[in-house]
């Protein structure tokens, strides 16, 4: 789970559209580094807190389980507003 400082950094990055480098631990324990454009913090249908983002590595919208985020660093780069819709919200309509 991210520290309070990392949580604050992610919240600011969402608001200011700042690119982040995130260290993430998968559910099977593998550590990964991702360059992301953070979009929103939500709860998914299973009740898990997740970070929705544009994953630059994969070129698609992705969600990261909040508990798997170990660290984040702002790159100093900003990104343009990316049109997206929250798939979890759409499925509840």
Report on this model:
The protein has 93 residues and is an alpha+beta fold. The protein has a single domain, classed as SH3 type barrels (Roll). The protein has helices spanning 4-16, 87-91; strands at residues 18-25, 31-43, 49-55, 60-65, 69-78. The protein has a 5-stranded antiparallel sheet, with helices on one face. Strand 3 (49-55) and strand 4 form a beta hairpin. The protein starts with a helix and ends with a helix.
What descriptors fit this protein?
93 residues, 2 helices, globular, five-stranded antiparallel sheet, SH3 type barrels, 5 strands, alpha+beta
In short:
The protein has 93 residues and is an alpha+beta fold.
CATH class: Mainly Beta
Distance between the termini: 30 Å
Which regions are unreliable across 5 or more consecutive residues at pLDDT < 50? none
CATH fold name, please?
A: SH3 type barrels
Mind summarizing the main beta sheet? 5 strands, antiparallel
Helix content: 10-25%
User: What is the spatial order of strands in the main beta sheet?
Assistant: 4-3-2-1-5
Q: What shape does the CA trace take? A: globular
CATH architecture: Roll
**H and E string:** HEEEEEH
Beta fraction: over 45%
- The figure for the number of domains is 1
| Average pLDDT taken over every residue | 91
Give the strand tally.
5
Structural class: alpha+beta
Query: Helix tally?
Result: 2
Rounded to an integer in angstroms, the radius of gyration calculated over CA atoms is 13 Å
């Amino acid at each position: 789970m991210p520290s309070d400082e990392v949580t604050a950094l992610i919240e600011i990055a969402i608001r200011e559209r700042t690119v982040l480098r995130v260290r993430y631990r998968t559910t099977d324990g593998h550590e990964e580094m991702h360059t992301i454009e953070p979009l929103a913090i939500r709860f998914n249908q299973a009740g898990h807190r997740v970070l929705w983002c544009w994953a630059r590595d994969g070129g698609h919208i992705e969600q990261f389980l909040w508990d798997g985020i170990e660290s984040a660093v702002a790159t100093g780069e900003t990104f343009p507003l990316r049109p997206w819709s929250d798939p979890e919200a759409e499925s509840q309509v």
